[in-house]
C-alpha cells in the first residue's frame, strides 16, 4: 500500500487531517477538516502474507518483536513513511509493520 492510498483510507475512515500554511495567521488557527462523530471509525487493515515481522519502530533497524500471518487484523493508529503503527487484533499493541504487507 502506498502513502496516498493510506492517506485516502485515513480520510475515508474519519481521521481528522490538519493543514497549516507558513503565514502567521495560519499558525494561530490551523484549519481542520470537519468530521462527524458518526464517521469516526478505526482503520482496520489485514496482513497479506505469512511470516510478516512486526517491529518496535518504523524501520528495519528496529527490533523484530514477533511475526503475524496472512489474514491477521491490524488496527491502524498512525504512520511514518512506509511504516504503519498499530495494534494487532488480540495481540501486541503499538507495533510497526511495513505498508507493503498490509491491505487496508
TrEMBL record:
The residue ranges of the SH3b domain are: 51-102
Leader sequence segment = 1-28
The family database entries (Pfam families) matched by this protein are listed as: SH3_3 (PF08239)
Keywords carried by this UniProt record: Signal
- The protein depicted here goes by the name SH3b domain-containing protein
